[in-house]
Amino acid sequence: MHLKRWITAFVAIPFLVLLIGIGGPLMFSMFIGAVCLIALWEFFHILLGKTNPLNPFCFKLLAFIIAPAIIWAAYMNSFKIILGLIALNLIVSALISLPKFKSDASVSEIVLKQLLGVVYIPVFLSYLIFIRNGDDGVSWIFFLLIVVFLGDTGAFYTGSYFGRHKLCPAVSPNKTVEGAVGGLAVNVCAGALFKIFFLPLLQWNLSILFFLCIGVAGQVGDLFESKLKRVANIKDSGVFLPGHGGFLDRIDALLFAAPVAYFFIEHIL
Questions:
Q1: H or E stretch covering 167
Q2: Is 0.90 surpassed by the pTM of this model?
Q3: Residue 127: CB partners within 8 Å, gap ≥ 6?
Q4: What is the per-residue pLDDT for 239?
Q5: Are 237 and 43 in contact (CB under 8 A)?
Q6: What is the rounded CA–CA span in Å between residue 128 and residue 28?
Q7: Residues 6+ positions from 191 with CB-CB distance below 8 Å
Q8: 3-state class of 245 per DSSP?
Q9: Looking at CB atoms within 10 Å, which of 16, 134, 215, 235 has the fewest?
Q10: Measured between alpha carbons, how far is 44 from 75 in angstroms, rounded to an integer?
Q11: Half-sphere exposure in the Cβ direction for 74 (13 Å, CA)
């Protein structure tokens, strides 16, 4: 499994570097849109699988229409359009659910899960596009990916070799306190190195807080997705990335870290 993780990483990293560094905002947004649709499909596989007694096809179809529209709105730098699309999604979902409620009251739960998927994946991913479109966007995207992914790797190996105390066993039995601390340490170290070489003007006190908040948000995102899989009794969200699972398994930490990073970049740093 370790070998598969590293092979997948070494194949994906050059592609990401070229895409972010050379691709431009449009190509980056298109890539995020593709990742969004795959992750959304995996999300529905987890929460609206075959065991669901009510066919959720219409709700899924609506989400697959709204999701790329949200990504497009982010490319256009329009929070207002994103808010309108979220509202439209809920209104249409509610409309679809009304005639189904008489035969199966669980349709209300499907509406909530669909709305969660629309906010959780396309809306949270849209923050990456907002960051990319901002000042020094390329540098900030590289920074965020390095800090989050290295922190995730640090937590994985620290927990594997030194983990003794369970972090949240009801959600993820393999996560440990030692792994969480190791991941945060790697978050800070990776962020500090990136700051020294590429963002030297940032203040150290705010920078350390920034790195820690990204790390904590990423770990919460990881645990949140683990909770979803635990409820569905699924180990991985998919099989697209050998050694990592699915796309949602790979970006779960990034989904929660991206809004936090955007807030710091735009309003604090």
A1: strand 166-168
A2: yes
A3: 74, 258, 259, 261, 262
A4: 65
A5: yes
A6: 9
A7: 143, 147, 207, 208, 210, 211, 214
A8: strand
A9: 235
A10: 25
A11: 30
Q: How far apart are CA 130 and CA 134, in angstroms?
A: 6
pLDDT at residue number 51: 54
Encoded tokens for 153: 């790797």
- 3-state SS, residue 175: strand
pLDDT at 77: 96
User: What pLDDT score does 106 carry?
Assistant: 83
Query: What integer pLDDT is reported at residue 5 of this predicted model?
Result: 67
**Sequence ranges of the domains in the chain:** 2-268
Tell which residue, 126, 114, 110, has the closest CA to residue 62.
114
Distance from C-alpha of 50 to C-alpha of 44, rounded to nearest angstrom: 10
Q: How many CB atoms lie within 10 A of CB 246?
A: 23
47's tokens: 């929460």
Residue with structure tokens 């779960």? 252
pLDDT along the chain (269 residues), means of 10: 68 85 93 96 87 78 98 97 98 94 86 96 98 94 95 91 91 92 96 90 92 97 94 78 77 97 93
Q: Which class for 121: exposed (0-12), middle (13-18), buried (19 or more C-beta within 10 A)?
A: buried
